[in-house]
């Protein structure tokens, strides 16, 4: 229960409304900037995802080539019976193994980057869709409150005179 004259009660309501309205308008403007910036970021993220997919395709070919080379050099060790040739084949196989391991590490790195970009894109969309939805609700409530207080200003003025 509140006491005081009608005028002071309506003045309090008006002050609270103006504060909330200004704060809401500021928040809506900041959220709109975030959504617009995310739109730009989203395009850049998709571009990075495309580049990562292309790089992954190249790295898959490099890995396959290194794997085939290692298999061939390993087979050469098995097929060779002469001791010196076998030692040379083992050396070539070991060098090929190192090259294969290096390509495999690169492949795993590119695969991880590609997967993480896809995840970031999808999660970002979900988060921004949620922000956009809550922003829409806030915008609707804000619009209704502005309309209500603006169109009923004369009613409030008349009530204040009583």
Structure report:
93% of the residues lie in helices and 0% in strands. The chain has helices at residues 6-79, 83-151, 153-160. The longest helix is centred in the N-terminal third of the chain and has 74 residues, at 6-79.
Distance between the termini: 19 Å
Distinct helical segment count: 3
Rg of Cα set: 34 Å
Helix content: over 70%
Give the overall form.
rod-shaped
Category from helices, strands and their pairing? mainly alpha
Tell me the major beta sheet: none
In short:
The protein contains three helices and no strands.
Describe the secondary-structure layout.
Layout (H helix, E strand, L loop, with lengths): L5 H74 L3 H69 L1 H8 L2
Helix pairs in contact: 1-2
List descriptors.
mainly alpha, 162 residues, 93% helix
């Amino acid at each position: 229960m509140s006491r005081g004259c009608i005028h002071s009660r309506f003045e309090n309501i008006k002050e609270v409304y103006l504060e909330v309205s200004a704060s809401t308008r500021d928040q809506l403007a900041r959220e709109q900037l975030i959504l617009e910036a995310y739109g730009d970021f989203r395009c850049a993220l998709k571009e990075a995802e495309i580049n990562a997919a292309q790089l992954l395709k190249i790295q898959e070919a490099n890995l396959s080539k290194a794997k085939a080379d290692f298999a061939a050099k390993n087979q050469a060790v098995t097929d060779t019976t002469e001791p010196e040739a076998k030692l040379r084949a083992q050396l070539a196989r070991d060098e090929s193994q190192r090259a294969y391991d290096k390509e495999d590490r690169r492949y795993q790195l590119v695969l991880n980057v590609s997967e993480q970009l896809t995840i970031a894109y999808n999660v970002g969309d979900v988060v921004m869709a949620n922000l956009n939805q809550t922003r829409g609700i806030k915008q609707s409530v804000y619009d209704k409150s502005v309309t209500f207080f603006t169109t009923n200003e004369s009613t409030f003025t008349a009530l204040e005179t009583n």
